[in-house]
Amino acid sequence: MRRASASDLLFDTHCHLNHPRLLQQLPAVVDRARGAGVSRMMVVGYDLPSSRRAAGIAAETTGVWSAVGVHPHEAESVGDGDFAELRVLAALGGVLAIGETGLDFYRNLSSREAQHRALERHLDLAEDLGLPVILHCRSAQDEMLGVIAARRPSSVIWHAFDGSEAHARRAADLGLLCGFGGLLTRKGGEGLRQVVRALPADRILLETDSPYLLPRGASGRDNEPANLPMIAQIVAEARDEAVTEVAETTATNACGVFRLCEGS
After folding, report:
1. How confident is the model at residue 5 (pLDDT cuts 50, 70, 90)?
2. Are 255 and 96 in contact (CB under 8 A)?
3. Sheet holding 133-138: strands in order across?
4. How much is the pTM?
5. Quick one: what percent of the chain has pLDDT higher than 70?
6. Residues 36, 231: contact at Cβ < 8 Å?
7. What is the rounded end-to-end Cα distance, in angstroms, of the chain?
8. CB contact at 8 A, 135 and 156
9. What domains can be seen in the chain, in order of their start residue?
10. 24 phi and psi, to 5 degrees?
């Protein structure tokens, strides 16, 4: 496996190159990302088919890794066989995390009970395999923090963070890293920019959540990893830091949590 170092450029820690709209133009999407200075990407699964695709993309593409998991929207239907396959996929060389999993009480497409069960099973799998967990959380911040406080997993990413500064501080106290993307550019984004200002630098990650969460001002219908420099710029402005400093710090954070840095 290729070993990354913090001297490389931007790291998109959450994207869905496995989504059909991006998959059909994958080489061009990757080329645009490289051209924008995004040298590394984490492709995240949201159900079994997308997790298989994520693992395949990671196996075939330099500088791309994957996570395998089932989104809380699908929690009602996930069973023993699904988790057995996730365990097999997670053993593949380019798979570095479990997720995305979590709680989504905004849409409630699966019952809250089913979401909690699925989350616990993802946490069990990650603990068994010694892998970090990628969390999706919407309208369930306090519940999610309660689960993490009770379980104390060793390595957790709160993807597409949209909680309050208090939630972020509690997450940091629990050892979580928080991923920031296009939400920083949207209505209410000033609150999230304040969170970015308040968080310790070693708790921040950059992401696009492509093809979702297109930043304001970006062109096209779908978000892509090539838009990550826009996020880095906003984070740099919020923290009164140079973009290069933000890129290096967040790359170091990503390399650490995914165990890609030399000696990790």
Report:
1. very low
2. no
3. 10-15, 38-44, 64-68, 95-104, 133-138, 156-158, 177-180, 204-206
4. 0.95
5. 96
6. no
7. 14
8. yes
9. 11-257 (3.20.20.140)
10. -70, -15
